[in-house]
Write a structure and sequence with these properties.
The protein has 365 residues and is of the alpha/beta class. The chain has two domains: 2-161 and 346-363, Glycogen Phosphorylase B (Rossmann fold, 3-Layer(aba) Sandwich), CATH 3.40.50; 172-344, Glycogen Phosphorylase B (Rossmann fold, 3-Layer(aba) Sandwich). It is 45% helix and 16% strand. The chain has a seven-stranded parallel sheet. A six-stranded parallel sheet has the order 10-9-8-11-12-13, sandwiched between helices.
């Protein structure tokens, strides 16, 4: 198949990671894959570095005949069979051009957000989109609740995937702990994600003082960047435990970082998929995650991790304490979580299901 993947976002996020992973995987399987992306986007840069054909566009408003024509021309010139895109703006602008050029259009919904109620939303989902990929049952349910005119059969749930079989660096734990000034016996709580209020890191940071009453050398590591950086630092400083908080910024060595963590927390108020949770499961970190969005589809409570109400500060503290106090329970969760991640969230499984769905939609004339 000749496949075009498209995003209008300039920043890097879970949807862009999915798109690049899918592009590389489908190319390796013999498909002709190219990307249409926003000028200056991180996705475009990384795709070009991987020798994928990239077409850079400038996205404007929802009514953009020039870009609609560019998608039509791109799909005609390269005889595109399937256009898969990740934002409604691209569906309205690019999807129409691709559909007119004869390509099958498949939007992918990567977050639990309702479908818009405008006539234009109904038109593009009913008349332009040949099918829809949702990254979770929670995302699919939200779509159907917000758009009762959509048929359930039109939405296919395909979970994200990561490399669940990668080897573990046996020296990573000591190396990363040395970097952070943590001894082998120092309890470490880790979090990964953009520093925004939606990710809710503060609910754990606010309990740092209580955790350090129990373990005076305990550290909290947070990898990520964003507007909440100063706020989180101020919470720890005002509580007198600033030396226990490590704000690490962007890290490109997440598996190594997770090797140094004893308990991984993911307290997001709302989540698209929760890549970081699966990363922790693969890395062998016991997980405490928020009982929200699609996270209960990833974490089987009590078997592969613990779930806590995202606003329950005492619940987060108690869950962390329970795992730090019980190495046997941590090991049990780690073993079950690794097995679950390999079975349900591998890249191979994701590519198998995505490729099969593209073929199915393409064959349905």
């Amino acid at each position: 198949m000749r496949i075009l993947l498209s995003s209008n976002l300039t920043e890097w996020g879970g949807g862009e990671l999915w798109m690049l992973t899918t592009a590389l995987g489908l190319r390796e399987r013999g498909h002709e894959v190219r990307l249409a992306v926003a000028v200056g986007s991180v996705l475009g840069h990384r795709a070009a570095t991987a020798d994928l054909p990239v077409h850079a566009l400038r996205f404007r408003g929802d009514l953009d005949p020039a870009n609609t024509w560019r998608y039509w021309r791109l799909c005609r010139e390269h005889r595109i069979d399937v256009l898969c895109l990740n934002m409604d703006k691209v569906l309205r602008v690019g999807g129409l051009g691709a559909r007119l050029a004869g390509a099958k259009v498949i939007p992918r919904r990567g977050s639990e957000m309702p479908v818009g109620s405008k006539i234009s939303h109904r038109f593009v989902y009913l008349k332009v989109a040949a099918g829809v990929i949702a990254n979770s049952q929670a995302t699919r349910n939200t779509m159907l609740e917000s758009a009762p005119w959509l048929t359930p059969e039109k939405i296919r749930v395909i979970y994200n995937g990561i490399d669940a079989d990668r080897s573990v660096d046996s020296e990573a734990r000591g190396r990363v702990r040395g970097e952070m000034g943590a001894a082998e016996t120092t309890p470490v709580v880790g979090m990964i994600g953009e520093l925004t209020s939606r990710k809710n890191h503060r609910v754990v940071v606010e309990r740092l003082v209580e955790l350090r009453e129990r373990w005076p050398d305990l550290q909290v590591w947070i990898a990520g960047e964003g507007p909440e950086w100063d706020h989180l630092a101020r919470i720890a400083t005002d509580a007198g435990v600033a030396d226990g908080l490590r704000l690490l910024g962007f890290r490109n060595d997440v598996p190594d970082l997770l090797a140094g963590v004893d308990v991984f927390c993911h307290p997001a108020l709302r989540e698209g998929f929760g890549y970081a949770i699966v990363e922790a499961m693969v890395a062998g970190c016991p997980v405490v995650a928020a009982r929200t969005s699609n996270i209960p589809e990833i974490v089987d409570e009590g078997r592969t991790g613990l779930l806590v109400d995202p606003y329950d500060g005492e619940g987060w503290r108690d869950a962390v304490v329970s795992l730090l106090d019980d190495p046997g329970r941590r090991r049990s969760l780690i073993l079950a979580a690794r097995s679950e991640a390999r079975a349900r969230f591998s890249v191979v499984r994701m590519l198998d299901e995505t490729e099969a769905y593209f073929r199915e939609i393409h064959a349905n004339r």
